[in-house]
Amino acid sequence: MRAGVIVFPGVNCEHDVVHAIEALGGEAELVWHRDTDLSGLDGVVLPGGFAHGDALRTGAIARFSPAMSEVERLAGEGSPVLGICNGWQMLCEAGLLPGAHIANRDLSFICRFVDTEVATTDTILTRSAEVGQRLRIPLNSYEGNWVDPTGTGRVALRYVDDPNGSQDRAAAISNEAGNVAGIMPHPERAIDDLLGSTDGNVLLESFLGSLVPA
To answer: Which numeric CATH code is attached to 2-210?
Structure first.
């Protein structure tokens, strides 16, 4: 179970993701965003933070990093691809997930735990969970308000309340095949009671369980 965690300039959650994956028995490898060969990896994670300082639009510059061509290839081959927070924004910018992200409804940065509910188990993010299961996970974002004019996004996880105005209360979505998923709250920050919750484990276990040796 070997996952690559792509490092873009400005992301700040890559080590958290590596720690969480390894704590669950997986193997994680940091991959620089300029790398063009991701062969040998069973899946990839795009971590949260502020890639390229969100200088143009969240994820808009990162979308053109050389590694993203390989991410697109892996996604097309059915390999698990997970974007967390800024990583979800990148996947939308790259066209691997539908929709886009705009500023939160109240135009404020949100930094607190939120309650979410599993909407489907047919994704790499939720396969180990149960429909209706509630998960408490920390949310840290300013542009977390997901909008999808196409109406094609598959909601995998919904906010119980509505912290940011995200369409259909979407906290996470997937592509039609379920192998590409994006989530706005941070499951890697909810893996230990000392962090305030262990509910992120079921989501990361889902991802690891989806990895098939390349």
So the answer is: 3.40.50.880
